[in-house]
Amino acid sequence: MNIESKINVKKNTRFLKYTKRFILFLICALVIGYSYQKAGVYLDNKKYSPPGQLVKVNGQDMHVFSKGNGKQTIVFASGNGVSCPYVNFYPLYNELSKHAKVVVYDRFGTGWSESTKSPRNIDTIAEEIHMALEKSGQKPPYIFVAHSLGSLETIAFTQKYKDEVNGIVFIDAGNPEFYKDNPLSSSNYGSTKLLKNFGVIRILFETTNMYKKTLCADKDGMNLIPEDLQKLDMAMTLKNIVNDDGLAELKNSTTNAKTLIKSGKLGNIPIRIFTSESNSTAFPAWNKSQIEFKDWSSDSKQTIVSGSRHYIHLYSPEIINQSIIKLINGK
Q1: pLDDT > 70? residue 12
Q2: What is the average pLDDT across 66-84?
Q3: Looking at residue 2, what is its pLDDT?
Q4: pLDDT at 16
Q5: In Å, what is the CA distance from 319 to each residue of 80, 292, 308?
Q6: Which residues does the UniProt record annotate as the domain AB hydrolase-1 (predicted)?
Q7: pLDDT digits (tens, 9 = 90+) for 127-154
Q8: How is the chain split into domains, by residue range?
Q9: At residue 9, does pLDDT exceed 60?
């Protein structure tokens, strides 16, 4: 073997040695990160017990929180990607519970509810919500408050159980016509899920201000949420972000919207539509669909909320609360 060959052998041997070390290091890092995430979820589950009750819906636990009293019940439907509706709707239900009974349910895959194998078609979701309300002892008539993609399940519920619904408040919520023509993206789902499962997002949340600065950028930094609930929301985000149930809801949004359109509009059930200034300005198609959303009822009003982003209730909850109180009083 000549000198050049010996040098090449040494280089290859060295390369293989460092490659093996890198692979070993990567495996160890992944195992440690995965274990760190699992341990974190376990400890968070121990620390944060459900504030409401768990009821069985199609064999799985669904969490339903309720507070207050009244002849009418206000039911909150969260948008896709909200990990803890109990925290997200706090600025609304904390005030409204003085005027009526309030209910916040966690769809499967959010909050304290389990994941499910049931299909995420809109009829199934509406039936699950109805079952959860019944089993947790809630009584109609209901006033629904729906944020974002929560509009679809709220409309489906109203179509199926029309006699139980006295009104709907939509918070930057999508017109089914918009979702029909604009499929929702899930392009970052796979990479985000990997980062979550192997502890990367947990490390970033716990060592930087990424949670408030990035995740809460369109939530006004969670400034209207008490600090203890902010910590709960971060824990729930680390548990529930990019779950399979939420992904299935995104993928089915176009089909679900078409189902609602086929089933017909809502007659004279009062609907109040609140549109964020940021979305109405930035997205002409969204703005147009919000104006056209009024056609879903003969008793409808739309308001563009100045200075707000997508989570209007975390910027200007008072304007939404006032509207809901008027609906409670039949105005």
Answers
A1: no
A2: 95
A3: 55
A4: 66
A5: 23, 21, 11
A6: 87-175
A7: 999 999 999 999 999 999 999 999 999 9
A8: 1-47, 53-328
A9: no
pLDDT tens track for 162-182: 999 999 999 999 999 999 999
Residue length of the chain: 331
The per-residue b/e assignment along 10-22, b for 16 or more CB within 10 angstroms, e otherwise, is eeeeeeeeeeeee
Q: Which of 182, 150, 180 is nearest to 263 (CA)?
A: 180
Query: Distance (Å, rounded) from C-alpha 322 to C-alpha 101?
Result: 16
E strand or H helix at 238: helix 227-240
Contacts of 176 (CB under 8 A, 6+ apart): 151, 152, 155, 257, 258, 260, 261
246 contacts 116 by C-beta, under 8 angstroms: no
Token pair listed for 44: 């968070």
The residue assigned the tokens 């003969």 is 298
Among candidate residues 186, 91, 201, 97, the one with its CA nearest the CA of residue 147: 91
Query: How many Cα atoms are found within 13 Å in the side-chain-facing hemisphere of 143?
Result: 28
How is residue 30 written in tokens?
Answer: 């992944």
What string of H, E and C letters represents the secondary structure of 71-120? CCEEEEECCCCCCCHHHHCHHHHHHHCCCCEEEEECCCCCCCCCCCCCCC
- Is residue 288's pLDDT more than 90? yes
- Per-residue model confidence as pLDDT tens digits over 23-34: 777 788 788 888
For 167, the token pair is 């009104």
For residue 191, name the pLDDT band (cuts at 50, 70, 90).
Answer: confident
**Exposed/middle/buried for 232, CB within 10 Å: 0-12, 13-18, 19+?**
buried
Contacting residues for 314 by C-beta, under 8 A, at least 6 apart = 88, 91, 219, 220, 222, 223, 224, 225
Q: What single-letter amino acid sits at 283?
A: F
The structure tokens listed for 329 are: 């009083």
